[in-house]
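Ligand: S-adenosylmethionine. Inputs:
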Amino acid sequence: MSTSSVPAPFSEAELRLLQALVYQECGMHFDERRSHFLQDRLQRRLKECQLDSFYSYYRLLISREGKDELSRLLENLTVNETSFFRNKSQLEFFHKHILEELFRRKQSHRDYSLRIWSAGCSTGQEPYTLAMLVADALAYYYLRNSLPIEMPSPKPLVPPPWKVEILASDISYSVLRAGQEGIYGETQMASVDYSYRLRYFDKVGERYAVKKALKEIVHFDFHNLKTEYLPQRNDVIFCRNVMMYFDEAEQKRLIDKFHRCLNPAGHLFIGHAESLLGLTEKFTLVHRDSGTAYQKLEVRV
Ligand SMILES: C[S@@+](CC[C@H](N)C(=O)[O-])C[C@H]1O[C@@H](n2cnc3c(N)ncnc32)[C@H](O)[C@@H]1O
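Predicted complex:
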């Protein structure tokens, strides 16, 4: 779409300035296809701030006092679409193979900590799905293997001495708040079958609240994937349907950061419309049936 048809007050140069600012702040790339969306959201923010010129809005965004407005603009530009049990074949691969192998390998080194990061977690459906899968996989593993210490009574969700942490991060404070609240309506619950609903949710009126024990293993936090300071020592990273909004240069930088944030032989899961092909040689594709992931390779320096 040509920017010559842009409604006032944005000129092509003004839009480019804004695009550069958004890219610099969070890595999101607005090409011609998505420029209409950017303009629409900008118009709304200008109206909300009761400003009538691009120039005054831009000045606000780059000022110290404009930090909150910059966060609000970025929140308005993110796509937060998500669901429980999204991409089932990939989750099955994670549940049945990757976790099983991780438990076995870790237990053999007497390392009972597990850290999984949902990067770009939106409203929490992804990290809570991972928490349910880990809890079930641990229970199943210890049906077939003996626990190193006696199981306490009542039986906890995570059998000791295991410590499981699911870190859920996003750039948007409003989605982080929703995730932390952990209450979902019937439409959002559509992909959660009854055995999961019964075990991991409490019915509150017409809605479903994530049970306390499951909530305790998921920690929500703000992290901008554009920055260098990201959570380290993860066994698995899920970053699905996030990189697709970045350009190639930013994707490459992010993949390098994920490589540094993963433990040796750790796994990276990305969205089904995303690929690392041609972007890195630091990961190798692993798969089972139609479920795919990328495994970290050690790189000699
Ligand atoms: C489409 S949702 C994907 C949610 C979930 N991963 C899934 O696949 O269902 C993309 C999420 O990435 C977040 N996001 C976008 N840019 C980000 C950045 N620079 N840092 C952290 N999160 C970001 C958005 O706020 C949004 O919640």
